[in-house]
# Entry
Amino acid sequence: MTYAIHPVWATTQKPESLRYGLYQVSSHGEVEIARANRLESIESLRQHLLSHQKGK
# Structure
């Protein structure tokens, strides 16, 4: 499985509202599976998902 992290803004008028989204990527596109205020939180989740994937 492939995952991508993208910055997400509620509006471009409020850059302080920046959040990060974790997306599952497939041949059909991307689906958001999580959102967080901190990049570190999203990266931790991504690493967790990847480590479980390797165990299969």
Remarks:
- The mean pLDDT is 88.
- The longest strand covers residues 19-26.
- Strands lie at 2-8, 19-26, 29-36.
- The radius of gyration is 13 Å.
